[in-house]
Amino acid sequence: MSEHDWLxxxxxxxxxxxxxxxxxxxxxxxxxxxxxxxxxxxxxRTDTSVIENLGGWLTTVVSRVCLDMLRSRKSxxxxxxxxxxxxxxxxxxxxxxxxxxxxxxxxxxxxxxxVLSKLNPSERITFILHDIFAMPFTEIAPxxxxxxxxxxxxxxxxxxxxxxxxxxxxxxxxRQRELVDAFLAAAYAxxxxxxxxxxxPDVVLRDDRQTGVSRVTRGARALAExxxxxxxxxxxxxxxxxxxxxAAPRGRLLYVLKFTIRSGKIAEVDLISDPIRIRQIxxxxxxx
Length: 288
Hints:
- The chain has 13 helices and 7 strands.
- By secondary structure, the protein is α+β, with helices and mostly antiparallel strands.
- The protein has a 7-stranded mixed β-sheet with strand order 2-1-6-5-4-3-7.
- α1 (3-26) runs antiparallel to α2.
- The protein starts with a helix and ends with a strand.
- The model is unreliable at 78-94 (pLDDT under 50).
């Protein structure tokens, strides 16, 4: 076996792990594959005799590549979030394997992918490497260009944002989540009667994708008819401190649902799809 073939085999043994790391960091299968390919290119140009731990070396490299990609993405988003989102969707449609990405997104958690996207690049990298892949801060610090103490602070700040701070008491969240999850399950299954039962008879839905009179849907039966058979890409999450819903097929956020719950029923629903408004929403995931 040639040295090149040996190196390819060693790299392939780490590919799945590298893709898992990169996908959680980038939230995009195509970009994760690009990052993994770049890590291979860097490995192929490196004297492997000086690498003591190939897996650790590759994880460090792919993390640095992802950090650069996230920083570049953040810069483009700040220039124009609408342009960035439309370009991202077009790129994904051209390059990604929808089925494979759907499997990956589901394994990570759609809501978690969305919440991670709201972290700054250094927070995101630090949280993923430490809290998800258990990398020590001594190894993370050089990747993000911070001291070990600063890296710990990044992870702590990210953890608070991911899991929420200042939300309502757990007992209240649990009751709301039970209601919202039942609503989502009924919507997905097309269970009309259960949908109606979860809704206040005078429930109001406000949808910012619509204009004029069509923007508002009133009444439990009308709303149940509108959502029955849907919600395939929706998950409950903590939205501005209470239980809401994130709709994110393949991890791409389409809209957020904010609920007002009264007397154990869903009384008001606000569907928010505008990117500017979504950026102002505090999103976090459940700890389980």
